[in-house]
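Researcher: I'd like a structural prediction for the single chain below. Treat it as a standalone chain; there are no partners to consider.
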Amino acid sequence: MGLALKQDIANAVINLLENFVLKHVQIVRLNAELVKLKKGSSSGSSEAKVELNLTPRLMQADAGAELPSYQVAARLRCQGGGEDQDGPSFTATVGYEAVYQQITGEPVDVAVFTANHASLTRQLYPLLQTELRGLLSRLGLEQINLPFDLAAKVENESEKTVQVSGSLH
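Model: Treating it as a single chain, here is the predicted structure.
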């Protein structure tokens, strides 16, 4: 195989969900803080920042395993309000550890998995946002609307953060 063809394969965007299955998922972080509840915070709207981070790493292979497993640390953080903004001032974070096992194809190396791990957001985000909704509800912030899903196509950038827009209603 020529060097140019190898580089094209390495640069191609792949959907990891075609070759990997979610083997295990576990909540590892639930954190919320209501800093300040301002008057009139239950009506109107203000902006909130929602950030999704995925951090993959290769797991130690089992003896005799031909295809790799990867652990993905997934974190969804929502932050709202500030000194000069209406609405409540709060932060809430949910974290999961997910294990993906490759089941088909040639073994995917860590560089290719890392370059394409954003394709896992369509599976992990709904788990995270459901847990985050419950956490915000327990804080009395039911008025916060988080997106239920993400775009099917995620841009493959060097930045490991997927920006999700959200608002308070």
